[in-house]
């Protein structure tokens, strides 16, 4: 099987020759630049400048030589930033941080000393606002032609030259994430409970943004088979949902379903949905809304036992992730033997019957030694064959 055939077989709930492998196929299945640099050195690959493809998470672009060496089965093609906006990195007033403001007006900062990624610290719609303020809040142009420059050629290279599966990325974070990022978490959750009209106004605005983007994307990509569409919305924490399952069903689910129904109407692509944390209570709702693939399968979160998830939902949804417990088995505090044991358990739980694409639980962070990454990969090669 070539890589694309392997992915398509797995995401259609059949067993390919081996479990497909993803590293760098999305901005939630990637590798932080520090770990990536060490991995290249460990593999004996030539020194080169590491390209950052996600400034917030400081994710590295996984180069062709690494993808070929490790047999990565999928590649991401994502929209570009609009040509009318350029990120300008500045010093914070106290000189401790690198800072910038993104095209949504959100402020981000990263410690100059020891910083591995950027955190939010300002929100453009914080404070006391009205629905009129939301109406007039200026969003980036989802139709800017510069966003789509080169996407057709890049996609055809993935499909025809590399024979890998093609993932198309979204224009932004999920609609609930944009809501909390632009409003701020304190005000956002207060509105969710006490001013739902304002919350819904923002959610509908961000839904319209994403629908406009996808409409143009499908026009640009007409005739090119998209295998997977990557969507996201972080809806859960370590032990429970961030919002109640009831409010998800009443407020967010109809908007998710509207977007997912549109995407399914325009393509045969499977919808890959990323939400960290303890999302088990809403997995049936996600399936009903049109989600085909769940990521990152955070097996360390509450009620997210990998064997139970497979038994309960494995015929209805694909698990993309969950291949190694990044919280409890993967960083520099754990040995390669601990990594191998965890990977074997996840394979035993998740691979039967297909419907599983191997990836770590979320991105490989900057504190993961290359010995552990390779222990994970070698175990997948040994025990991931059907």
TrEMBL record:
Gene Ontology BP terms: porphyrin-containing compound biosynthetic process
Entry superkingdom: Bacteria
Domain Uroporphyrinogen decarboxylase (URO-D): from-to ranges: 130-383
Pfam name, any one: URO-D
Matching InterPro entries: Methanogen_methyltrans, UROD/MetE-like_sf, Uroporphyrinogen_deCOase
Alphabetized PANTHER family for the sequence: METHYLCOBAMIDE:COM METHYLTRANSFERASE MTBA
Name of this protein: Uroporphyrinogen decarboxylase (URO-D) domain-containing protein
């Amino acid at each position: 099987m070539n890589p694309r055939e392997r992915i398509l077989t797995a995401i259609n709930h059949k067993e390919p020759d081996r479990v497909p492998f993803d590293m760098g196929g999305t901005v939630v299945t990637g590798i932080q630049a520090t770990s990536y640099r060490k991995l290249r050195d460990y593999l004996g690959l030539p020194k080169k400048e590491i390209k950052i493809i996600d400034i917030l998470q400081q994710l590295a672009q996984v180069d062709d030589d690494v993808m070929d060496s490790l047999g990565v089965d999928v590649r991401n093609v994502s929209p570009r930033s609009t040509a009318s906006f350029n990120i300008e990195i500045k010093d914070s007033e106290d000189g401790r941080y690198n800072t910038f403001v993104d095209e949504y007006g959100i402020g981000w900062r990263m410690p100059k000393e020891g910083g591995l990624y950027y955190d939010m610290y300002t929100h453009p719609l914080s404070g006391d606002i009205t629905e009129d303020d939301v109406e007039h809040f200026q969003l980036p142009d989802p139709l800017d032609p510069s966003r789509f420059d080169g996407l057709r050629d890049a996609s055809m290279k993935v499909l025809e030259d590399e024979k890998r599966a093609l993932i198309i990325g979204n224009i932004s974070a999920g609609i609930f994430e944009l809501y909390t990022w632009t409003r701020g978490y304190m005000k956002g959750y207060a509105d969710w409970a006490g001013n739902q009209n304002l919350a819904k106004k923002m959610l509908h605005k961000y839904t319209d943004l994403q629908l406009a983007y996808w409409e143009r994307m499908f026009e640009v990509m007409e005739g090119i088979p998209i295998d997977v569409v990557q969507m996201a919305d972080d809806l859960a924490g370590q032990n429970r949902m961030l919002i109640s399952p009831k409010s998800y069903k009443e407020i967010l689910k109809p908007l998710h379903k509207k977007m997912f129904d549109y995407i399914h109407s325009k393509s045969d692509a499977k919808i890959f949905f990323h939400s960290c944390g303890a999302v088990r209570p809403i997995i049936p709702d996600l399936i009903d809304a049109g989600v085909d693939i769940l990521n990152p399968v955070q097996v360390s979160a509450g009620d997210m036992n990998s064997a139970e998830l497979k038994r309960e939902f494995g015929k209805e949804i694909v698990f993309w992730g969950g291949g190694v417990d990044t919280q409890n088995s993967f960083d520099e505090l754990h040995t390669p033997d601990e990594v191998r044991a965890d990977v074997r358990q996840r394979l035993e739980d998740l691979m039967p019957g297909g419907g599983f694409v191997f990836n770590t639980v979320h991105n490989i962070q900057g504190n993961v030694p290359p010995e552990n990454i390779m222990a994970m990969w070698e175990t997948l090669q040994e025990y991931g064959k059907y």
